[in-house]
Amino acid sequence: MKLFPWHPPQTPVPPVQAEARCPICDCVKQEILECGRTTFVTGPSRSHAEIQNGRKFHCSACGHIWTSWMSKDLKNVSALYDGIYKETANESVDVNFRSAYQLELLTLALLASGKKKPCLDFGCGPNSSVALMLNKLGMPTQCCDISNYYPYDNEVFFRHSADARWHNRFGGVVSVDVIEHLGDTLNTWLYFNRILKPNGVMYHIFPTTIHYGLDHHYITNAFHLCIFSEQSLRLLCDKTGFEFRGFVPSKIPSKDPTLQQIFHFEKTREV
Ligand SMILES: [Zn+2]
């Protein structure tokens, strides 16, 4: 994979629009954060001027951080990430370090939900083999992603869509390093609610300002579009029918706080 260092915007950043409204609490007051100090942008993505002119907003009321630039059209988002994933789309090379965490989270979700309904690995990236393996072991699991290049079978491994056929289908939803990439966070969490059975569980790993300062590269990274504070995460749970059940310590050794603590949520009502 070829990576290019982040370059500062070549053209002046346009003034903040009045409708820069926090997607979690609707507040219109925010500060602008510097974006992308240590960010790497892949070759094809460099042609997207919206990234280079993008801004990050930090809500003055709930502390949520979001960006101005990411398209909500998943086809466009997919094209951006294909620049990263294209070379790893072949199943023969579909293992990276996240697969160990995906296995850990899926196991937690399957045990918590009693294996009566499948669990979903949301945004599995190139690691569909984790779900395929668990299925062969009698642990019902599915996985999905938005890439254009993966070998979807539309059974175990499907391309993400808001398709009604997945509603009330899953006992659990998990993800590793996906939540921070969401361009339409509220609707994605409403989707999680719809696809989960009552009392379904979620286990996610993602960076937040609970664990990192505003200048940390996980927070400034231009591709990290959605960074929660403790308050904005609780607000989102309230709006989308979930309760935060606390952190589960990961059994995989790491010095990275994001990878040490797994977020555990439970669906508590329909929305
Ligand atoms: Zn807010």
CATH superfamily of the largest domain: Vaccinia Virus protein VP39
- Helical fraction equals 25-40%
State the order of secondary-structure elements, H for helix, E for strand: EEEHEEHHEHEEEHEHEHEHE
Give a short account of the largest sheet: 7 strands, mixed
CATH class membership of the largest domain: Alpha Beta
CATH fold label of the largest domain:
Rossmann fold
- Give the percentage of residues in beta strands: 15-25%
Structural account:
Strands 8-7-6-9-10-13-12 form a seven-stranded mixed sheet, sandwiched between helices. Strands 2-4-5-11 form a four-stranded antiparallel sheet, with no helix packed on it. Strands 1-3 form a two-stranded antiparallel ribbon. The protein has helices at residues 49-52, 74-85, 98-113, 129-136, 185-195, 217-220, 230-240, 257-260, and strands at 3-5, 30-33, 40-42, 56-59, 65-67, 119-122, 141-145, 157-159, 170-176, 196-205, 226-227, 242-249, 261-267. It has eight helices and 13 strands. The protein folds into two domains: 3-88, no CATH class; 97-267, 3-Layer(aba) Sandwich (Rossmann fold), CATH 3.40.50.150. The radius of gyration is 18 Å and the shape is globular. Mean pLDDT is 83; it is low at 1-9 and 87-94. With 271 residues, it is α/β, with parallel strands linked by helices. Zinc ion binds at residues 22, 24-25, 27, 59, 61-62, 64, 232.
